[in-house]
């Protein structure tokens, strides 16, 4: 038994019988607390990978192991955030962030009695992403960047062991995006959790991840596994250093090969 | 600003008065005989002469309509929840619902009379049958159009179907539900009045039928006006309830 936290063994995925493969023989090993990024051309099955790991979709062949157990249904403790913040418009920011607490055990049974304690926790988390003073606003009163921060808080409030991010910063302007990179990196460095980040922004992958996987066109397959040893914490300056630009260049040429193949 | 607001509030009254004035003028200018089209003033005067009878019949129609509407709300919400939360039930129920809704309800009244006799019961059932469809469709739509990403977020937290329905499905369906109530209440009036006209001896529909058989057209039109006023009043009540309970859907803008 290896000590990886997430393991994909010869996983293949077909959406329905007779379809072409969405994902071809994929193997991955992710350590506990590791931050990985998956990059690739659009439609290459990056999002399917997330659904497989979180158990929302069973693999057609092979198996997925998380925390030593084979995944057979939706995992119950995964945090998720998408490009679309999907906040609930009838709830305030604070109540949106508290949503997972109403669902995840054992919190759902404790929430009513210990409301104040949980609210305090949510307020603290919101403060770390710069949303202090916006707790009682509704999502439509927040900017896109602020909504995405709240969505990030919602995915982290229950301290998940596994965080899935599907192009979470894709719809934001460049400055907000880079600000959120720092916020995410900070949260992760304070208390490391395992992250799977799906993105098509190569700079984002190079900035955040420990390991970067490059995927091929459909049927998706992992072509390159690239370790990223740039020192942490990475900041604005890092992005102008030679090793960083070299890494982005290298990833870019992989993607070019994939697209031309 | 304040003047503008007052003008907005006055607009519906002005348009109603304008319509009556136009109607009155056309009848007088073209000398249309009252047994074809009475003037609104005549209708209102006759309506006042018969106000006791009208009041009794209107009260009965309102009661019948609300009873049918109440059944439609309960039935519509339950069926809408089932249809909206399960693909299989949707596939099974949809053609039946659409087919049923296409049947003219007036054609069902004789059947109902055979089963329940003349009077209030067929009227309540007709009001119910005609008004539940929009409620079912809207509740089901509100539930079924949940964003797949949001469903994934909740499922990967260990949410059950019931959790998803209560935390997200129902709150999300509320604006759809209230919008359908406004449509349903006006349809319920149509249903009860149709049934009263065909098979009853009480209610505004019956009043109009018996008035027309005596060529008392002003009284027929008085009955129509009473139904319209009741419809507007009920619509407005549900409009206010809708705005109060689903503020978020209007982005906090109360004038919508």
Describe it for me?
The complex is a heterodimer of chains A (261) and B (256). Chain A is built from 8 helices and 10 strands. Chain A has 261 residues and is an alpha/beta fold. Chain A has 2 domains: 1-78 and 162-261, P-loop containing nucleotide triphosphate hydrolases (Rossmann fold); 88-159, no CATH class. Chain A has a 6-stranded mixed beta sheet with strand order 6-7-8-3-9-10, sandwiched between helices. In chain A, helix 7 crosses helix 8. The longest helix of chain A has 19 residues, at 242-260. The two termini of chain A are 37 Å apart. Chain B is an all-alpha fold and 256 residues long. Chain B has a single domain, classed as MetI-like (MetI-like fold), CATH 1.10.3720. Chain B has helices spanning 2-29, 40-49, 51-85, 87-102, 109-116, 120-144, 148-155, 161-198, 204-213, 217-245. The radius of gyration of chain B is 22 Å and the shape is globular. The two termini of chain B are 17 Å apart. The model of chain B has no long low-confidence stretch (mean pLDDT 90). At the A-B interface, strand 6 of A face helix 7 and helix 8 of B. Chain B: This is ABC transporter permease.
* Terminus-to-terminus distance of chain A: 37 Å
CATH superfamily of the largest domain in chain A: P-loop containing nucleotide triphosphate hydrolases
Give the oligomeric state of the chains in this entry, treating copies of one chain as homo and distinct chains as hetero: heterodimer
Give the count of helical stretches of chain B: 10
Based on CA atoms alone, the radius of gyration of chain B comes out at 22 Å
Count of separate structural domains of chain B = 1
Query: Which CATH class of chain B applies here?
Result: Mainly Alpha
Name the shape of chain B in a single word: globular
| Average pLDDT number of chain B | 90
The portion of residues assigned to helices of chain B is: over 70%
Shape-level CATH architecture of chain B = Orthogonal Bundle
CATH architecture assignment name of the largest domain in chain A: 3-Layer(aba) Sandwich
Number of strands of chain A: 10
């Amino acid at each position: 038994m290896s000590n990886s936290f997430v393991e994909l063994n010869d996983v293949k995925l077909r959406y329905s019988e007779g379809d072409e493969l969405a994902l071809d023989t994929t193997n991955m090993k992710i350590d506990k607390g590791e931050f990985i990024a998956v990059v690739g051309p659009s439609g290459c099955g990056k999002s399917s990978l997330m659904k497989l790991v979180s158990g929302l979709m069973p693999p057609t062949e092979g198996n997925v192991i998380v925390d030593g157990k084979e995944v057979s249904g939706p995992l119950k403790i995964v945090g998720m955030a998408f490009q679309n913040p999907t906040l609930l418009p009838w709830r305030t920011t604070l109540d949106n962030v508290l949503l997972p607490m109403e669902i995840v055990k054992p919190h759902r049974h404790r929430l009513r009695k210990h409301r104040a304690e949980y609210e305090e926790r949510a307020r603290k988390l919101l403060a770390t992403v710069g949303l202090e003073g916006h707790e009682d606003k509704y999502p439509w009163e927040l900017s896109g960047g602020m909504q995405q921060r709240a969505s990030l808080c919602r995915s982290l409030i229950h301290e998940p062991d596994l965080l899935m991010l599907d192009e979470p910063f894709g719809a934001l302007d460049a400055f907000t995006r880079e600000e959120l990179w720092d916020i995410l990196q900070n949260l992760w460095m304070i208390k490391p959790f395992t992250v799977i980040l799906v993105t098509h922004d190569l700079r984002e992958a190079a900035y955040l991840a420990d390991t970067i996987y490059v995927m091929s066109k459909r049927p998706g397959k992992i072509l390159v596994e690239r370790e990223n040893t740039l020192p942490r914490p990475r900041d604005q300056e890092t992005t102008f250093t030679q090793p960083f630009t070299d890494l982005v260049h290298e990833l870019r040429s992989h993607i070019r090969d994939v697209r031309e193949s | 600003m304040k003047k503008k607001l007052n003008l907005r509030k006055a607009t519906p009254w002005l348009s109603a008065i304008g319509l009556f004035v136009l109607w009155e003028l056309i009848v007088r200018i073209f000398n249309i005989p009252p047994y074809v089209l009475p003037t609104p003033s005549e209708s209102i005067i006759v309506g006042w002469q018969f106000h006791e009878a009208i009041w009794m019949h209107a009260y009965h129609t309102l009661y019948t309509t609300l009873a049918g509407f109440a059944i439609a709300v309960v039935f519509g919400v339950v069926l809408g929840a089932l249809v909206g939360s399960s693909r299989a039930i949707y596939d099974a129920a949809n053609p039946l619902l659409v087919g049923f809704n296409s049947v003219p309800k007036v054609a069902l009244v004789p059947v109902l009379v055979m089963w329940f006799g003349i009077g209030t019961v067929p009227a309540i059932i007709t009001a119910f049958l005609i008004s539940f469809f929009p409620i079912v469709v809207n509740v089901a739509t509100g539930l079924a159009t949940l964003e797949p990403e949001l469903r994934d977020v909740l499922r990967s937290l260990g949410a059950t179907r019931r959790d998803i329905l209560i935390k997200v499905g129902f709150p999300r369906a509320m604006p759809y539900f209230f919008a359908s109530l406004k449509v349903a209440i006006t349809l319920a009036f149509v249903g009860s009045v149709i049934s009263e006209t065909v098979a009853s001896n009480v209610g505004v529909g019956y009043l109009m039928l018996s008035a027309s058989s005596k060529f008392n057209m002003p009284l027929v039109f008085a009955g129509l006006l009473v139904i319209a006023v009741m419809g507007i009043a009920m619509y407005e009540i549900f409009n206010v309830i809708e705005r109060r309970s689903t503020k978020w859907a209007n982005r906090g803008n109360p004038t919508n």
